[in-house]
Amino acid sequence: MTTFPQSLNPVRGGFVLVDPDSGRASKTIPFQYNPDTLTRTLQVQGIGGEPGDRLEALRLKGPSHESYRFEAEFDATAASDKFPDGLFPVLCALEKSLSPTYAQLQNEDQLAGQGQLEIVPVEAPLTVLVLGPKRVLPVRITDFSVAEEAFDAALNPIRAKVSITVRVLTVDDLGYPRPGDPGARAKGGTLYLTYLQQKERFADGVNNPVTDVGVPTV
């Protein structure tokens, strides 16, 4: 569909922040270590009906809601010369997608001072979670907790463990990509559809007859 997923770095794992207007990767935050554990949760989006509603029992109204929960570790203890501010730059880069920027807040204040009754909410960068080459996902960070575990002489954090929960953004959130649309929403929609295709290809590899696993033939 596109070379966009393959053009993102790092391949191993990390976050990529994508500019909402240009659709270009503006910042890459790699994981120093692979997460030890990763928890995935899927919630089916079925048609809400009463038990016994046979007409709706198998119908789906949209992609399942999928979330990931894991811990990312960062350590600057062995490279203090490369990290004069400790891990503050890394942590602030991660937190940047969670709130409006200084310039956006200033602009909102100016518009409010000019009597604007309705101000369009600011748009954050698209956050892309990279978990190897097979999982490149547009996400929204829903929970972010930092445990700073060691500090340098200036009290800059030099070792930290970040607990993160993200929800995968689907075409229901971002829309479908359209030709000629360079924005982050289109890029995110493309990434989700690519991810969905990859999962379907893996699922197609499980083609054993149901009788091989002791399931009665329907």
Notes on the protein architecture:
The protein is an alpha+beta fold and 218 residues long. It is 22% helix and 29% strand. It contains five helices and seven strands, in the order αββββααβββαα. Strands 2-1-5-6-7-4-3 form a seven-stranded antiparallel beta sheet. Strand 1 and strand 2 form a beta hairpin. The longest helix has 21 residues. The two termini are 37 Å apart. The N terminus is likely disordered.
Helix content: 10-25%
Q: SSE order in H/E notation?
A: HEEEEHHEEEHH
How much β-strand is present in the residues?
25-35%
Mean pLDDT: 83
Which parts are unreliable, with pLDDT below 50 for 5 consecutive residues or more?
1-6
**Number of helices in the DSSP assignment:** 5
**Gap between N and C termini:** 37 Å
Any idea what the radius of gyration is? 21 Å
Shape annotation: globular
What is the topology, as strand order, of the major beta sheet? 2-1-5-6-7-4-3
For the biggest sheet, the summary is: 7 strands, antiparallel
Structural class by secondary-structure content: alpha+beta
The tally of beta strands, per DSSP, is 7
